[in-house]
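Data availability (excerpt). All sequences and predicted token strings are deposited with the supplementary files. A representative entry, HD-GYP domain-containing protein, is shown inline so that the format can be inspected without opening the archive.
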Amino acid sequence: MAIADWWPFRRRKKKSLQSNVNVYDVNQRVYTPVAQLKLGMYVIELDRPWLDSPFLFQGFELQTEEDIRRVREVCEYVYIDVTKSRKKVVEYKGSQENLSLDSIADFPPPPPKLSVFEKEIDRAEAVYQEMGVLVADFMERIARGEGVDTKAAKAAVAECVNSILHSPDAFLWLSQLKNKDQYTAQHSLNVCALAIVLGRHLNFSVSNLNLVGLCGMMHDMGKMLIPLEILNKPGKLDDAEMEIMRSHTSLGHELLKSSKDMYTGAIDTALAHHETLDGKGYPRRIKDKGISLFTRMVTIVDIYDAMTSDRVYQKGRTHLEATGILSNLSGSQLDGRLVVKFIEALGVYPPGSLVQMTNGAVAIVVEVNELVRLRPKVIILLDPEGQPVEERVVNLADMELDRRGQVLTIKSIVRPQDYGIDIGKYYRQGVLQKGFAYGRS
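Structure token line:
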């Protein structure tokens, strides 16, 4: 079942104080015989208790004919929420100028993955490394007073788009391999990839994925014109230093304007990615409709990657902490619709996350199961006693039982440093290859 309504703040339910039963406004809740179900409808109630049905989540969108068939097999009628149901399912193929900010919530579901993690990870790693070298070279050239090689940047983004369309999980996994000493270059690379992941979730055309990815890659190039003693200062910046740091938006804007054949949207995003919907951002204090769709997207993923990265002056936050902060900024500073879509795109447990299992074991998330997003594929690293084990991939959707006979599932996301785990070291030692090889043996 294609279900994406796991995030608590998305629900529009009201609690009855007397019965503690979910109820809906009569204008939203519509009785619908299963013979009348159509793609895009959002099911909120069945003709039987949810626990007596095969559906894992209470509330889901009918995204495929298979979804409709499964509902018809167990129900005679359901109730749909007309405010969440989409009137038509179409793919948005136009340029950014043809993408409506008001229609974000109505975008169709993302396309199916073209491959699987195991087959894509080697190519994704090669693309990621090449892009890392390219971004670092861009930044060195800028620091020397030279311009950006737009043609090379566009070619690199196109490779990234192709890899993410095959398996977004592979690139998301690689984005977790962060080095605080290379933060600025890795940040630009990760923002590029995360913007493309979000664009894929919005079902952007390939051309639009290339454009939003370029916006992400170029957004912080102006930082290379900031003095290193300010850019890398381990402590809090004073007011004068902060003013200089904030000038990276205007500096990046001018730099990209002077770069041959640079996409105008990327030039705009370099200037505006610190603007907020309430008009309290910088440098121009523009707000709401003055901020383009691609810039809104880059702003969200920029904040997320910055929050989840170790910096010289702070430890990175967990995925759950970061998405909680994004949700708190929704509506006032960030586009709430895009925040929801971004969290959906990453999932509850993004690839590369370290998690503790319900039996106490520690594992790393490998690949999201898009039909059962709370049950990804993981590689067990430590047993319940905290001892290293032979790495193996476990597909939690298979409902494997632990030693107590309980279904093995994820308890929470944890910090690698709390368990003495260096994800980068595990990766270099071939943890992924070993895990998948175990499953084939």
